[in-house]
Specification:
Number of strands: 9
CATH topology: Oxidized Rhodanese, domain 1
CATH architecture: 3-Layer(aba) Sandwich
Largest sheet: 5 strands, parallel
Strand order of the largest sheet: 3-9-8-4-5
Structural class: alpha/beta
CATH superfamily: Rhodanese-like domain
CATH class: Alpha Beta
Distance between the termini: 39 Å
Number of helices: 6
Helix content: 25-40%
Number of domains: 1
């Protein structure tokens, strides 16, 4: 992507986010998301949640994400590019997808790929929980149940044994961060099923970066 395209993309994201900001932006908070964006309103389980950064400038990271070293494998550092055609995104792009979903764009689905025990500790507002094990044949997920998720939640269609992804959703997937293999596992399995790479986005920083930046979380059920 050349510099012109990057600037255009950044401008479109900023415009979408600015259009979604509420009264919190007018309060001139000290810790904003970007120089122009103080908060973003998204929908989570039918309720409006304002995503903003923690305003306590002495705040430190959630202890659950303070650990620097985990045994590898399985907790190995993921590459910045997971697979050809799969776009790696950051926080501003994630917020843009959440805003678009909130405004009624049903072609997008933000997915927390972590196991329920992690989701209960806190997740990104606007995301839905689909544990990575539910899409992993190696963890006992059978083809029928995987197919049901693909059709009922992702919008794919199965025609005479073949998958049609014409109207399939753009999936924005995340897990615990750069050392977590749960969303990468989901993405690789979906690619094996033929899911279009351009319809998969990966938030590599995941909850680790989200927490480090002091962004709003909600308790998952």
């Amino acid at each position: 992507m050349n510099s012109t395209k990057i600037l255009i993309t950044a401008s479109l994201i900023t415009t979408a986010l600015l259009a979604s900001t509420g009264s919190i932006a007018e309060d001139k908070m000290a810790v904003k998301i970007t120089p122009d964006i103080a908060s973003v309103d998204v929908s989570h389980n039918g309720k409006t949640v304002s995503i903003l950064r923690n305003q306590n400038q002495k705040n430190t990271v959630n202890p659950a994400f303070a650990k620097t070293s985990r045994k590898c494998p399985p907790f190995c550092i993921q590459p910045s590019i997971l697979a050809p055609g799969v776009e790696t995104i950051g926080e501003v792009e994630m917020l843009d997808f959440l805003v678009r979903m909130t405004k009624g764009d049903n072609s997008i689905l933000v997915i927390d790929s972590r196991t329920p025990d992690w989701v209960k500790k806190g997740t990104i507002p606007g995301s839905v929980s689909i544990p990575w094990t539910d899409l992993n044949p190696a963890k006992g997920a059978d083809p029928i149940s995987i197919g049901e998720i693909m059709e009922e939640k992702f919008g794919a269609k199965q025609l005479e044994g073949l998958w049609d992804y014409t109207n399939a959703k753009t999936l924005v997937m995340f897990c615990n961060g750069m050392w977590c293999g749960q969303s990468p596992n989901n993405i690789k399995n979906l690619l094996k099923f033929g899911y279009p790479a351009h319809k998969i986005k990966w938030y590599r920083g995941g909850m680790q970066n989200w927490e480090i930046l002091g962004l709003t979380t909600v308790k998952g059920g």
